[in-house]
From TrEMBL:
Lineage: Bacteria, Pseudomonadati, Pseudomonadota, Gammaproteobacteria, Chromatiales
One biological process term in Gene Ontology: cellular response to oxidative stress
Alphabetically ordered keywords of this record: Iron
Organism for this UniProt entry: Rheinheimera riviphila
Superkingdom of source: Bacteria
HAMAP family: Fe_traffic_YggX (MF_00686)
PANTHER family, per the entry: FE(2+)-TRAFFICKING PROTEIN-RELATED
Entry protein name: Probable Fe(2+)-trafficking protein
Length: 92
């Protein structure tokens, strides 16, 4: 049976992640409070950020920038700003 969490991003009960995908305290917070659906939305934003800003995951500064954006997106309701990206007109 799928693991359920109360997703603070979607503000509803939803299937949780199968395992902790991110290390440390933030990873545990995501595992306990973020659904698969919400994390998939973050991963799409993360991919756009990495591509747009040409981030290198071996670079500590770049990883820190991504982590800050992930925290803000998933837990603080802030949209990820990607230069040149215009969201679809329907808002999702």
């Amino acid at each position: 049976m799928a693991r359920e969490v109360f997703c603070v991003f979607l503000n509803k009960q939803a299937p949780g992640l199968d395992f902790q995908l991110y290390p440390g305290e933030l990873g545990k917070k995501i595992f306990d409070n973020i659904s698969k659906e919400a994390f998939a939305q973050w991963q799409a934003k993360q991919t756009m950020l990495i591509n747009e800003k040409k981030l290198n995951m071996m670079n500590l500064e770049h990883r820190k920038l991504l982590e800050e954006n992930m925290q803000q997106f998933l837990f603080e309701g802030q949209e990820v700003k990607v230069d040149g990206y215009v969201p679809p007109a329907n808002g999702k």
